[in-house]
């Protein structure tokens, strides 16, 4: 729900946020963990024939654990995870000390998003073979997906103790530290990842986002610029650099980067929104309106886009259209107090002072829990309209 702050017709909300993938984040860093270390099931090129061969071997000897294991690997490679689980379970029934079977059954469970069972199998595998870094890595990934960052950190640390040069463990531990808001440690791990793999753009991107979270926008801009040197078509890097410029008050540079982000990805709703917000701040309302419209076309439930387009219309004196947008914002969020106040201001500007007065009086009743500053503002408007 939008925050309860005093609204003014010329004020544009919300502050830009850094973004990665399809999830917006800046104030709360959402973790995006790399998947390149996910195990690949090995097996024959001729899948069906190999399955038949292993099945025949099992028919000849029901205690042939290697045949169960190999067939389970093939099923996993083919995406038949239920069958893979069954075969690895057969291996475990024949040999409860087979760490590989527990591990790959855990992989199959993970692929099915049965995370609790995956963790249980990875844990048994780690107990049986404590020197296998991949087991800790895989379990750490599942913990991270569950948001259990402390346990993820512990597992990625185990990987690094076994192999200090493991770049992906550094990267993913950095993500887990970021999820815990332990930003200094996150920066340390992303920096180590960059030392190990200086061409890995995601590490620069994630470190830049953490710098942004810390308010160090200069370093954030430097990292996003490096991402763009590695990949000039990265719309998210342009967007995130624009956010950092925005936060520093370098609005024209921010507009330029949002525009470049849109050149790379014309369906980037947040880039339209943030560019429109900046045009509004710069009082270029006619340019703000089409950007908010584009954001709405891509996300018809974006309450702030309706609100800010209304504010851009109001800035041009087009109050009827502004009221329609505030109406739409209120339909989406009945508790959006800023939209009610802005609608009342438009009614007053149109000379419909009685309707504006009724709106403000309604707000006092409906938003009895509003912040004191907002209540005071509404009361002042009521006094002015009653004179």
Strand and helix map with partners:
Layout: E1 19-20, E2 23-24, H1 47-60, H2 65-77, H3 81-94, H4 99-111, H5 115-128, H6 133-145, H7 149-162, H8 167-179, H9 183-196, H10 201-213, H11 217-230, H12 235-247, H13 251-264, H14 269-281, H15 285-298, H16 303-315, H17 319-332, H18 337-349, H19 353-366, H20 372-386
What are the key terms here?
single chain; mainly alpha; two-stranded antiparallel ribbon; 20 helices; 70% helix; disordered N terminus
Task: Outline the biggest β-sheet.
Answer: 2 strands, antiparallel
Average of the residue pLDDT scores: 88
How would you spell out the order of helices and strands? EEHHHHHHHHHHHHHHHHHHHH
Silhouette = elongated
How far apart, in Å, are the first and last alpha carbons? 34 Å
Q: How many separate helices?
A: 20
- Alpha carbon gyration radius: 28 Å
Return residue spans where pLDDT drops below 50 for at least 5 consecutive residues: 1-38
The multimeric state of the shown protein is single chain
Instruction: State the strand order across the main sheet.
Output: 1-2
> Which bin fits the share of residues in helices?
over 70%
Q: Which class of secondary structure composition applies to the elements?
A: mainly alpha
Strand content: under 5%
The total count of strands amounts to 2
